[in-house]
Design goal:
The chain has a single domain (48-203), classed as P-loop containing nucleotide triphosphate hydrolases (Rossmann fold). Helices cover 31% and strands 18% of the residues. The protein has helices spanning 22-28, 33-44, 59-67, 107-114, 131-139, 155-167, 175-181; strands at residues 49-53, 77-81, 93-97, 121-124, 147-151, 185-190, 197-203. It has a 7-stranded mixed beta sheet, sandwiched between helices. Helix 4 (107-114) packs parallel to helix 5. The radius of gyration is 17 Å and the shape is globular.
Length: 210
């Protein structure tokens, strides 16, 4: 609202009514077939997937496609978000939201609560602060197979971004924990023309020099 802007400005993020699947991504040219299989293999092997990209690149939509895969349908899934955008049809799921009004409930609070809910897979809508460290601890302590998104300019940059977020709450960066918990990193970006988005990188066994 004015005086921050000249006139009222609205940004509406509407939940889609149709879920795009990984097969849909492949048919539209957004995701190469071999990379779709890489994602499916990671799910089957209960690896943690980090989806990276810029604002509006389609990270959440891609995560919804991943959540549509069979591995999530027979397990207890806990979803943690600031804004309700993730869509998971798993019968056994718990959806948790942060709260900005007093008493506030942060991502860190929800991650601590999550560990008491016997989750099989922990899914985080977006990692943007010190909860990155709590996420690593959760994923590294018997809760593999999760998914999260992060803002970054490349797959490798996503790991450096994760370092920066952890650095907000810790003087020590747990490089070994990052390497253990994150695999693979999927990078999606906006492109000109059709289809408008493209998964341009998938990095497996990525590492960060300490």
């Amino acid at each position: 609202m004015p005086p921050l802007v000249d006139k009222p400005t609205f940004s509406i993020r509407e939940r889609p009514t149709v879920i795009f699947t990984l097969d849909d991504y492949g048919a539209s040219g957004v995701l190469a077939a071999e990379w779709a299989q890489t994602i499916r293999n990671a799910l089957a092997q209960r690896k943690n997937i980090l989806v990276a990209g810029g604002a509006g690149s389609g990270k959440t939509t891609l995560v919804n496609a991943i959540l549509h895969e069979p591995e999530f349908q027979c397990q207890r899934v806990v979803l943690i978000e600031d804004t309700r955008e993730l869509q998971c049809s798993a019968p056994d799921r718990v959806e948790l939201l942060t709260k900005n009004t007093e008493p506030k409930v942060t991502m860190n609070d929800l991650l601590r609560m999550t560990l008491r809910l016997r989750p099989d897979r922990i899914v985080i809508g977006e990692v943007r602060g010190g909860e990155a460290l709590a996420m690593l601890k959760a994923w590294n302590t018997g809760h593999p197979g999760g998914v999260a998104t992060i803002h970054a300019n490349s797959a490798q940059d996503a790991l450096h971004r994760l370092e920066d977020l952890i650095g907000e709450v810790s003087q020590t960066i747990p490089h070994r924990s990052i390497a253990s918990a994150i695999n693979p990193v999927v990078f999606i970006e906006r492109i000109a023309g059709t289809p408008g988005r493209r998964v341009s990188q998938i990095v497996e066994n990525a590492s960060i020099a300490p």
